[in-house]
Amino acid sequence: MEILLAVGIVALIGLIAGLGLSSASAALAVPVDEKTESLRAALPGANCGACGFSGCDGYAAALAEGKADPNRCAPGGPDTAAALADLLGVEAGPMKKKVAMNLCNGSNRHVSPKFDYQGTPSCAAASMFFAGNSSCPYGCLGFGDCVKVCEYDAIKVLNGLARIDPLRCTACGRCIKTCPKGILALLPADMEVLVRCSNKDKGAKTRKQCDVGCIGCMKCTKVCPTGAIKVEENLARIDPDTCINCGACVETCPVECIHTLRV
Fold it and tell me: Is the entire prediction scored with pTM above 0.90?
């Protein structure tokens, strides 16, 4: 009888606790916003943060509240933008496909090691020691931190330099957030001319660090017919919205740091 009584008491406590939890769950339940749920379902689920929000849930909530435009999901591209716009009853707006690009061409052929690094094989770790073991303090270290975070197998390290396959890249932005050198950038996929350098030192110093580093000579700015190239902090940069892809800068650059991306 004592055993049965004990079992009965435990069962009763369990029943009361269950009823209490059920009541609390019903009372504290957050109403499901069907609009937000529909918008979330239309997103690819990359949760990359490239849209500027804390993943797909945050972006869907912002869309439902009218705090974001439907054309900010880089991995989803124009199709996702159109689906979101249809759910919101608005225009999707223009959206250019973007891909990550490496603004460095300092492979092992063009830079040299300034010391024998034997620490953790990581760009983040190596960069903490005198800005890394490369002769260029601004360039790619080649340990592949970006490779490890890319879920789409779009990045390979070849000859000490991260190479990004534009056909595999979804513009999620994870590699950009991971790179301690800040040399990866999201740029229009149809961009045809790119300055592959991030060195901001003066020309004479840059030449000692890398064979193909920008020396800020401004020859590219003088031949650009649209003024799309600016040299700031000793480094040339091309405005993709103004560039007409004529290739004059590519032919003029004395150190060959401006590359054509035409396939």
Answer: no
